[in-house]
Sequence to fold (462 residues):
Amino acid sequence: MKNVLKMEVRRALGNYRFFAALAAGLFLVFWHFIQFSIPYMAYQEVYSNGYMLYPHNVYERCMLGDIYGLQVHIFALCLPVLAALPFGASAYEDTRGGYDQNILSRTDRKYYFTAKCAAAFLSGALVVLIPVLTDFLLNMCLYPTIRGDITTGWDGAAIGGMLPEFYYAHPFLYTLMIWSFIGLFGGIYAVMALSVSRLASNVFIVLLFPALIQMFYNFTCSLADVPSWETTCYFDLAQSARYMRAWKPLCVAAGFLALSLFMYGMMARKKDVLDR
Amino acid sequence: MSRRYKRAWRSLAAALIVLMAVSAGRNIYLNRRFPEPGQVWVDEGEALTFNGCELTVTGSRAFLDHEDITAYYNEPKWKIWANILIENTSSSPSSIVVRDIRLQSGAWCGYMDLFGFVSQNDHVEGTTITLMPGESCQVEVPFPVYYDPRLDEMYRELKTGSCPLNLVYTNYPVKNQCRLDYTVEK
Fold:
């Protein structure tokens, strides 16, 4: 199992698609940094009526905190594609290329599929977390890590949203929580792409499947007027959607994960390579 | 993993480590330059010193304003009035910008109602109050709380008078706050 896992992780993290997805995520980060973070430095240390205005902080100026910027919304929309890109289509390609026949003759079927699932989850989580971490570090070079102040109106977190008091008391822990949501959903979307490998006839369908599911799910939530259940709301620091609660992202993630694992299990259950 | 990708990973890790070191160094400097604000808390009746003036909240009340229903907010709104005594205790003229005073309750923040302030305080010419040494001025500042589904719990607490409210006048790096001991008028 250990060897298969090691091999699958190496395949997941060492392919051109992983670096292409990473480059796309980093592009958004640098775009936001150049368009918003650097020019906003002019609003630091501003005096009004003889006293200094409260300084801007890294939590509201980073890409995830700046909900008025375009980049965080593009990131939230593209997250399923970015996550699925590195290793989401591997099961499809293994089947098409006959790689799985070779590997299954050498190791247990269960180990192979478990290792593939774990590697896909890891690659999906990493490919979305590295740009987010880079963004935070870049903004730390320009803005202090002091706590936000609700009276300034600069931080998006407010009453009715998800744990706003926690955000103003412990912003870094709050940021870690949002990062964990992003990593979790990234991993789940990668597994979701894996799970449709046997059903799809084209690699693009496999890679776009998580994005289509997210789009359909969010569209349904939007029609039902329950914005706090939309997945794209979970990837920013403002969390200003009405009736947003911390357990909601976890519920949605658990539902998506259960669905993905069920479909993946059904796909992996096929006993013979001639069954496909 | 091929050698090419190993090299790419090493470069990525090295870049992240360098970025971490640079941002940690810069951030230590920035956090010294912009420290966490000091918190000054007083209760009603106690004075806050700011810009050579002393601000004392002499009383506050809250009531559900059924009459003030506008086209934009078709729900009744709460209005919180705070009586503030401003005294210039310094030896030079000093001014206070009343509109910079905020009303805060947890993760909610309210701004002054300008029209209400102007109509209630005929003796002042604007929201910037300039006082000569030894001069004082009493103003009544209204803060509306418009209905929003997010504020359901706050509305319930306001009815019973258990909603914690405080006035905030931030003079970075000091955040001056006064707890309001308001009475709810029926």
Q: What stands out?
A: DSSP finds three helices and twelve strands in chain B.
